[in-house]
Specification:
CATH topology of the largest domain: Rossmann fold
Distance between the termini: 16 Å
CATH superfamily of the largest domain: HAD superfamily/HAD-like
Largest sheet: 6 strands, mixed
Strand content: 15-25%
Number of strands: 14
Number of domains: 2
Strand order of the largest sheet: 8-7-6-9-11-10
CATH architecture of the largest domain: 3-Layer(aba) Sandwich
CATH class of the largest domain: Alpha Beta
Number of helices: 10
Helix content: 25-40%
Structural class: alpha/beta
């Protein structure tokens, strides 16, 4: 037992822990370490796949279980063990690949442990250089047959690509769940997470807290994006970043500083530490 009413702190990455230069501020890192010292579990909750979180997990010294792919996967990288995975339907994936080919839409696939692309693209370069995840270049039609795909991804870098991504979204809106997110490191770029129906960070939190034997009410959550709204709505204490969307701020109990000015540390020092 800890001396706090809270037993779990769940933190988003992009726009919350990581700002424009892709790094975590020293004060945020130190505040999270102090939270751990209190005996409170610290977990990430992110739209990123597992592989692109390794650097962050190592820097923060976090093991345990975390929420990946906007809640589609709850996984412990240190144990190579998943406690929840909601994969995409193979038949829908095959149609999605066909549609993407027909309309010249780049699409990426993620399993629990691998990242797949069909060719070298801007997205593949960014994932390698910024997120630290190297792609396997292969046929996505083949991957549909032999891998459980947790998340597909689109990246829109221009108005034309945004239009194509919206066309894809409209085509599959009844069969897939879409999460449009951004990162401060790439302003103006849309990263679109494509997930199974019913997936959300809030659902991921329910799974994680049940596994830990606590309730969502014993959780502090910090986030900035619309994909964090379900997470913030489920937590006992919801903290929105100063740079958060209006939707995230609307469901928060507290709005802290922005990501470039130690918002995580400021909130934790005020409300938890």
């Amino acid at each position: 037992m800890t001396g706090s009413a809270y037993k779990l702190l769940v933190v988003d990455i992009d726009g919350t822990l990581v700002g424009r230069d892709g790094s975590i501020l020293a004060e945020d890192r130190e505040a999270l370490a102090r939270v751990c010292d209190l005996g409170i579990t610290v977990s990430l909750s992110t739209g990123r796949a597992v592989q692109s979180c390794v650097r962050v997990l190592d820097e923060l010294g976090l093991d345990g279980y975390h929420i990946f792919c906007d809640g589609a996967l709850v996984y412990g990288p240190a144990y190579q063990k998943e406690i929840y995975a909601r994969g995409l339907d193979r038949a829908v994936l095959k149609r999605a690949v066909e549609f993407a080919h027909t309309h010249e839409i780049g699409i990426d696939f993620y399993s629990a442990t691998q990242y797949f692309v069909e060719r070298e693209t801007w997205s593949a370069v960014v994932h390698r250089d910024f997120f630290g995840i190297s792609p396997t270049i292969t046929s996505l039609d083949e991957i549909c047959e032999r891998e459980v795909i947790i998340k597909a991804g689109l990246v829109a870098t221009s108005p034309e690509e945004v239009a194509r991504a919206r066309r894809f979204h409209l085509e599959f809106d009844d069969h897939l769940c879409f999460s449009w997110v951004t990162t401060p490191s790439y302003p103006g770029i849309d990263f679109i997470n494509v997930l199974a129906p019913g997936v959300s960070k809030g659902r991921g939190l329910e799974v994680l807290t049940a596994h830990l034997g606590i309730t969502p009410a014993e959780t502090v959550a910090i986030g900035d994006g619309n994909n964090d709204i379900s997470l913030l709505s489920s937590a006992g204490l919801a903290i929105a970043m100063g740079n958060a969307t209006s939707g995230a701020k609307a469901v928060a109990d507290y709005v802290t500083r922005d990501v470039e000015h130690g918002g995580v540390a400021a909130a934790l020092n005020e409300l938890v530490l």
